[in-house]
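An instance as discussed:

___
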Amino acid sequence: MPFDASTPMRVKRTSFGQKAKAQNFRSSKGELGSAAASARAGNRLSRSERTGTQHGAAARGSAAYEGKSRTGLGRTSVGRSGGARGSYNGGSARAGHEVGHNSSQEQVNLLRQRREGQAGTITKMVRPPRRKEITPKRVSHKPGFTTFQLRLVNSILTSALVDGKPLDKAYALWFAKVKLPQTEQGFVISHINAMFRRLSFYAQVAGLKRPSDFKRHVNFLILAYYVAQGWPEPELNAEGFDRSGITKRLKEAQEHPLLREGCPYWLEELGSRELKDAWPAERKALGEAAKRFIRVNTLKTTRDELASRLTQEGVVTRSVKGVATALEVTSNSALFRTEAFREGLFEQQDPGSQEIAPFLQVEPGMRVIDACAGAGGKTLHLAALMQNKGTLIALDIEQWKLDDLRKRASRAGVFNVEVRLIDSTKVIKRLYDHADRVLIDAPCSGLGVLRRTADSKWADLNPRLIELKKVQADILERYSRMVKVGGKVVYSTCSILPSENQAQIQAFLAAHSDSFKLEEEKVILPSSGFDGFYMARLVRLA
């Protein structure tokens, strides 16, 4: 193999050194001029001749190239395999090493031409075939999850279905262990959410009797989802999965309204009983994917400014009609990794929820109480409406939620909020007749936001609903006393059930007809495109 000092080649380390040593050894033994060696070689060059030719030609070629580069002559093309590489100025002076077998005649003629004055031209030469490059096979893109994503999906489903973790906790657990790009994480979350929105549908496709059977057959859910999506079947251990008649089962599930819309039977009975003829439209809406909305922090920016800023960071938004502080996020972007979020320019909040704080009719300088503040979504909105003026007391029974509220308030530039933990009834009693406005965002079934917590609907809420109604009535009774005479109280829930909403207000007013009156109430249903909410504003008379 000729050696070109100027061009990197893929060669074995020993190809030059070992052959040179062999040539020197055989030359010392007299094998170069031996008739016996010539006889054995026949019509081809001897090993020593080939080695000598390669060694000598390479050295001379390298030297000639260096001289040629200084005079500005063209460079020859250099291959990766053996054989002559091109024209060098000078060439070999010893014809004895250039004459060999007939197969080398073309090489010899070319070398002679170069020696006779054609060294300045680049001669096209016949190259031996190049060594085949080994490259990894390009895997064609297939719809569905990658192998890694498939294992991650299985782990998240196992945490939710088998271990009984809420889906958001399962996400937090596994995404803390596995760092994914935001778009890939969003892809996984969107498909798992789709599975839970219609869990009964996929149970039918998988040939199971009820969604709870997925606790023992997590992979059945994944396979059924693949079938429904029309994706190629993945390699999964799903022993016992009934593939016969799967097309028929899929068709039956698509034609069944409750399965198609992902509505469990207990919810169908409850919704039909409470909402009557309005229920089918709400059932359909609750089975759809939730949209993403944000609230503009008006303490720091305007809606138009925020939309422009997010566009610069690759987040596409559009205004929401009828809600002045709302933007809908229409791109699958890393929303919470933007500088706009770090600077506290917005909070994620549904437009329906954004209507509750203005409904309280707060003004700067007032004394306001958010009695069930939680992590503070509505508290921060109230602070913005108050322009950071006045006093805003945030109450809750969970310390970790109040700690989270402090962090969010700091990011949002809110400094008129005072947080208090409700660790006894005295906390509430000390605030009687104390506030101009009180917001009671009562605990509820959460049926209005069911499409954001799709895993929660597969457990029957009826037993818990009985207790929730008692808690709502008690909170409304005690917390309403914190407002001054002439002040206003807003009772709100994220439920669409009249028994949690209008019925509670009617019962309260029946017991306090001389001290409170209903000023206005409002219902937002999921069929509107927003989450479902109820709000009622009461005025204290005495």
